[in-house]
Amino acid sequence: MTIILTFLQQAVAQSISILFGATGEIITEKSGNLNLGIPGIMYMGGIAGLMGAFFYENGNEHPVAWIGVLISVICCILASALGGLIYSFLTVTLRANQNVVGLALTTFGTGFGNFFGGSISKIAGGVGQISVKTTSSAFRTTIPALSGLPVVGPLLFSYGFLTYTAIAVALISTYVLKKRRTGLHLIAVGESPATADAAGINVNRYKYTATVLGAVIAGFGGLYFVMDYLNGTWGNNGFGDRGWLAVALVILALWNPANAIWGSILFGALYILYIYIPGLGRASQELIKVMPYVVTIIVLIISSKRNKPEDQPPASLGLAYFREER
Q1: Span 134-168, pLDDT tens digits
Q2: Which end of the chain is more exposed for a tag (fewer CB within 10 A), N or C?
Q3: 93 closest CA partner among 33, 43, 179, 10
């Protein structure tokens, strides 16, 4: 029982970065933009939040936890929004190839994170010496009293506030996309920007807003990873392929943020499953770690065969919009 409970807790802990990234990418893709720069933006959000907390704590003899959290969150938002703006400007305004821009942004974001992560390590006294204990402890504070309940306490109430934020953002995003005029307009832009434009919807504004907002949400995935999961530390290339898992989860979730909640937990469970299976060799471990991608491919094939409109990607996904050709 203890092993199962630990496994489920770890699966949830693994899932949150992926959930933030997938929710952000779903919102972006609903506008017709395919942002493959999400992995890089997660790096940017994570390192910016860590840098803000690090310099605050090292500049104050008695740092206050909530101020450190506020600074960390603001830095994460600014860096992630910058990534979204860069992508939007190049693809929406300049109409550059979305795949090329996205991959370049991922390369830039990863290098950005590793460069500044290494620089902070040197300032702190050596590689691996970065530590923002006060701020990180605030990020990891669990729900009082409830977290002490047997079984349900550790499983449901033993996480930091970003875990519950990720779930809330996914649910709110689903509600807005399905029930609010703004969400319906966004879907219209992603399906047929020319039709939306003719109906008086500002296509570029929706594309910019959705992409920047999606980048900010994805950036919180990076912030969660360094401040909560890694306890306020940094390791170069420590994110692994979580950013790409977030992009893959968009397909598994069928472009529905609410579906991404259980999908991210499934991905998190598959990602660490090899640890709980004794006697596996290196090759077998790697095979198990690619299972999320296999599941995604299966879902993609099934959804394509069923051909239900609500399970398909936006019709204009990845395509530049030329208003003069309307």
Answers
A1: 999 999 999 988 888 888 998 999 999 999 999 99
A2: N
A3: 33
Q: What is the pLDDT of residues 89-99, one digit of tens each?
A: 999 999 999 99
d(CA 28, CA 280): 39
Burial class from Cβ neighbours inside 10 Å (0-12, 13-18, 19+) for residue 4 reads exposed
Tens of pLDDT along 30-65? 999 999 999 999 999 999 999 999 999 988 888 999
Distance from C-alpha of 319 to C-alpha of 29, rounded to nearest angstrom:
11
From 17, 88, 23, 99, select the one nearest 255 (Cα to Cα).
Answer: 23
State pTM to two decimals.
0.95
Q: How many residues does the chain have?
A: 326
Residue 223 tokens read as: 């912030």
Please provide residue 82's backbone torsions phi and psi, each rounded to the nearest 5 degrees. -60, -45
The residue with tokens 């966004």 is 186
Does an H or E element contain 242, and which? helix 242-252
**Domain boundaries in the chain?**
17-241
Nearest to 35 by CA among 47, 26, 44: 26
